[in-house]
Amino acid sequence: MTGEAKADVADARRRIEVLDPFTVSLPSTGLVASRTVLRLDKVTAGYASDAPVLSDLSLTMTGPERLAIIGSNGTGKTTLLSVITGGLAPFSGSVRVEVPCAFLDQKVSLLQPQLSIRDNFMRLNPEASENACRAALARFMFRGDASLRQVGQLSGGQMLRAGLACVLGGERPPQLLILDEPTNHLDLDSIAAVEAGLVAYDGALLVVSHDEAFLEAIGITRRFLLGAPLGA
To answer: What's the pTM?
Structure first.
């Protein structure tokens, strides 16, 4: 995130503090505290076997942990997410995602841009009724005709809100949610809705972000610095 973008987010967050608190109610994931969610064992990965980006990396998440992946640019955060989500096979080691998982990348590629927000929700939640769909989208501030907007016409912040509404608003949300730099394009309304939605989510959360204020707001409990041991 650029310095200007960070300043815009900080200014928006200060403005949120004078507004009425925004809250979201979400269905439970049913994730129990003892369940292993994610396990990486001695993973080495990258794009050239003679110059791996990640070397002998191990990581475990258990229950509804909230883990932030941190590190400077070029340390392998994107590579790690690609390995976890199946986009990149490791050279060695094992990767096991042991619960239902959803991944929202920076472009929210999970959504089809030619479809409306409503149609994306129904595509991802085919068992949902029309009323359940509208209620889920309204939780993330897409009320009435706003739910019929084409995803490809949304701003970055609106698109992230739409993505969260679609993956968290179903009858049983995924037990692991992975986010890549979610605050890069957030406006005032989107910051409020995204933070409230993630606070209400009771599953495991894995986030790549440089935004410490955002990480604090969503209750991150553990940080993993690439190239260093896990810390509190």
So the answer is: 0.87
Tally of structural domains, the chain: 1
Structure-block tokens of residue 216: 């604090």
Instruction: For CA atoms 120, 126, 130, 132, give the dihedral sign.
Output: negative
Instruction: Say if 232 falls within a structural domain.
Output: no
Predicted local confidence at residue 55, as pLDDT: 94
Residue pair 218/198 in contact (Cβ under 8 Å)? The answer is yes
Residue 128 pLDDT greater than 50, yes or no:
yes
Tell me if residue 118 falls in helix, strand or coil. helix
| CA pair distance 125, 174, nearest whole angstrom | 12
Question: CATH number of the domain that 170 lies in?
Answer: 3.40.50.300
pLDDT digit string (tens) for 51-104? 899 999 999 999 999 999 998 888 899 999 999 999 999 999 999 999 999 999
Q: Which residue has the tokens 């595509």?
A: 123
Query: For the chain, how many residues are written?
Result: 232
Whether the Cβ atoms of residue 151 and residue 197 lie closer than 8 Å to each other: no
Q: How many CA atoms lie within 13 A of 143 on its CB side?
A: 3
Q: Which domain holds residue 71?
A: 3-227
